[in-house]
Automatic annotation (TrEMBL):
Major localization listed first in the record, in broad terms: cytoplasm
Name of encoding gene: Cplx2
Listed name of the protein: Complexin-2
Compositionally biased tracts (Basic and acidic residues): 15-90
Keyword Ligase: no
């Protein structure tokens, strides 16, 4: 029967003793091994970061060659130029419009509306004209 139990449990008999409250075996070199393992992990991580930095630098070099060849600009440069152009158009105004209004579109409409209102007032009777003028 002992043979059958040992076969069923396999090599877990040592672990069973630990779980039931037995003493654990202490490895005298466990601390040293753990420090070496942590150092190896740190070193691998540093090598991986260095490798990725080199690869990204090479990619950026190729990207820059393509930009130079075809006269393209980086996204940051494009955005900066667009922002500068928008601010330059709105330099004289106190409030910046949400969208750029083409030249000659904003003020003329107001003047036309006033002239239409004046035209309508001309055709009204005298007392009504006085009311609207106030």
């Amino acid at each position: 029967m002992d043979f059958v139990m040992k076969q069923a449990l396999g090599g877990a008999t040592k672990d069973m003793g630990k779980m039931l409250g037995g003493e654990e075996e202490k490895d005298p070199d466990a601390q040293k091994k753990e420090e070496e393992r942590q150092e190896a992990l740190r070193q691998q991580e540093e090598e991986r970061k260095a490798k990725h930095a080199r690869m990204e630098a090479e990619r950026e070099k190729v990207r820059q060659q393509i930009r130079d060849k075809y006269g393209l600009k980086k996204k940051e440069e494009k955005e900066a130029e667009e922002k500068a152009a928008l601010e330059q158009r709105c330099e004289g105004s106190l409030t910046r419009p949400k969208k750029a209004i083409p030249a000659g579109c904003g003020d003329e409409e107001e003047e036309e509306e006033e002239s239409i209102l004046d035209t309508v007032l001309k055709y009204l009777p005298g007392p009504l004209q006085d009311m609207f003028k106030k």
